[in-house]
Request: fold
Amino acid sequence: MEQGWRQAKGMFWAMLTAPLFWLVVFFFVPLGIVWLYSFGENRGLIDIVFTGTWSNYAHIFDLTQPYLDIFVKSLWIATLTTFFCLVLGFPVALAITFAPPKAKAWLLLLVMLPFWTNLLIRTYALMAFLRTEGYINTTYHVLFDMANAVAGGHLGTFQPMELMNTNFAVVLGLVFVNLPFMILPLYSTLDRMDRSLLEASLDLGAGHISTLFNIVVPMAGAGIVSGILITFIPALGSYLTPDMLGGPDSQMIANVIESQFKRANNWPFGAALSFILVYMTFIGIAIQGLLERKDAGRSA
Amino acid sequence: MSDALIKHKTTPPGPLEYLRRWPLQVWLGLVAFFLYAPLISLMVFSFNDSRFTTVWRGFTLKYYDKAFHNSSLIEAFGNSLTIAFFSTLISVVLGAMAAIVLWRFRFPGKTAFNAGLAIPIVVPEICMGVGMLVFFAKILPWPQNLTWPFNLGAIIIAHVSFSFPFVAVVVRARLASFNRELEEAAKDLGASEFRTLMDVLVPHIQPSLVAGALLAFTLSLDDFVITFFTAGPDTVTFPVKVYSMVRFSVTPEVNAASTILIIVTVVLTFLALKFQGSSALTAGHDGGAETK
Amino acid sequence: MSLGSSRRSLLTAMGAAAVGISFGGLSGCTKPVSKSINFYNWDTYIGDTTLADFEKETGVKVKMSIFATNDELFAKIKTGNAGFDVIVPSNDFVTYMSQAGLLLPLDHAKLPNLKNIDPAFMNPPYDPGRKFSVPYTWLVLGIGYRKSAMKDGKVPDSWKWLFDSDVYKGRMALLQEAGDLMRLGAKYLGHSVNGIPDEMLKQVEAMLIKQKPYIKAFHNDDGQDMLLSKEVDIVMEYNGDIAQVMKEDPDLDFVVPKEGSQINSDTLAIPKDAPNPEEAHAFINYMMDAQAGAKIYEKILYPTPNAAAKALMPESYKNNPVIFPPAEIMAKCEYAAFEGPARAQVYDAALTRIKSA
Reply:
């Protein structure tokens, strides 16, 4: 499949130089500073000294500290978010793929448009729905009163649903925010799918559902994996959503990192916490690589 | 209800016309409601005659008036659009190049490059923000008092750094379905490497370029944390402005500004579609495997 | 394909521009040196015309940038090369920054309007002799509440209702500032907000962990919004924030608890590496002018330490018991002192444990 780089040197360097340069100079150098901080210590009022210490990492894995629990909780919330994004987003990506070209453009626009609005504003908008006296509870109240009138008051007094400041609200908010990250890569892959296979499957009498699971999902494997990755990772590192929609126990790891860089002003520890997330990405990518290899093996 | 809708059509839905089947229509409707209801409520409440979002106190346009006369808000708005524009442009080019290299070539250090590209996606924003803060303070001090838009350069650089890997992911997913034989055929017919790339490969990945551009634009327009730490004096962006406005509970004015932003976006996209034809978002779809 | 080549030439141009920006092509694009200063302030924390008026009077243009927390301000100033001339840190950060050598000592000879400041604010513990800062506003933490939702119609005039009681179960929100929570917890237990011993910190932590099931949320200084939208009935907030929402909903009120509370003060200061210290002094002096000050406080509605400006304000401001709580209760309030950078880490770790408990 792939070409050795020597076979087309000119093309190879032309394509590689710019992204590599950018990545190294404008990303790895700034990040490298923070990475060095993760092995550093605070000195005096504002200085950070690189001492090569592992104490920041040791502190995270100290079981008497809450940090590991917070990691586990964040992983769990990110997993739920990714799952719901996939379930919600896959049919949408499918519908866009098989839409006529005109409708396709509009559907893509429909998916993307909400995300041109500021994240903070969107989260605020969501809060208006979830509040105790928000739209959902107001609607529920009206319906409840109607049902109660029919039931002759046997339903008792109205109790609003507790939606805001819960872990439920956090997952809902994260799905709301991350859905296009799932839909776009899915669409991108599905759109290039060989449709004759689907038609063959349907012609041979397979139902739509079984065609979906036996033909479409395996063929969209790469897109699904990249969709999962591109949703899961930002969800894991999300800060604003748990902060605004969460309850007293909804803190995620990014909230802790944020407070280390700000309130606690402990940059070395914040850096160590951040890099645990980075190390976890490597694991995620390794898994993706493994899946892709398996994929390639199957199609060969 | 949806059944009735389908009966209006002259033909029954074809086997792959999923959009015309009611379960998917219902599903699309629900997702659209989920995505749009909060935004529409936001737009409605931008006309609310109260400083707070949740209590309706009658219709007013005064927050639009305020937003239009808030010169710092307008300036922040302009800054954000400028940053998003340049950042998207650079990100799409860099992201596509990275994706093509990774898809096409075998080379030493490929795994490392691939993993390296994924890091910007995972690094917590605050961590990268601090990195950028120190970088532009100590390593590459960004001069103060540059003329617009050069004073935004540091922010644009930072935005490209976290945006172009996203573009690369999207483009790569698309490349996976490219039929290499097309490229070989083009070369056999005497096209140069570069012509082959531009005439065969680029049209194929165009939908993902557009999708990637949309993603990059969104990320840039949305970013608060990294921007905040990278921004010098006098380079307030829209999210930074909004963030502090929301903190001080002046939300209707922010709602008004957001409503304007949404409308501007819709109009711009509409114009782009008119100029390019609707193919801007779907190019590469026709003339593919499903020619019928 | 023309699209391709035009894109490529654009890329080349962009590349050239990027290189030009990064490596010294800058001399040509710096602005002509007109007098202007960079003011780093909280948003909505200035009068509508203050900056324009100052420019009219002195010819110096003021460009305002905004931050939302002291921590953000500190992070920027700490790394240097920030380019700001006047900043607005709170009291404990004045101490922190001045000790770290990040602030320029003020030249009082260039600040004749200091005479307008209430003498009570002229020698605060966080900046003795006003060497580094002049006071801009002050604020006090207390309890904002919905009158009709209070049990037996009583005023919740004790921290007990927020820290140590299930009466307002699920209807209360606390400020998400580790330091403020710990200090006020200690205040409730009868200690000063400063010099809290470790055992007492543990006690406060245990108390808040016990209280957590009854707490609806830790808010980011938007407690007034939660109160107004009836999300909660009782909330820990600053007086100025509650004063603003009381105009919207007369059922809301504010009280400084009988145990006393914590006062904060936002100040004007000049960073060490300020490019234009001369103009910065002139600007700070202008902000302390009686007329100019009155215009600011009329707009922002925070309590002012500027006696001359206060005298020009309407009765509705001067005699508002929420903006200016009764003197006998204010006597029990203290400034939180800066107790070293490690202290903030201790407080923050405690809040992290409380939240994950």
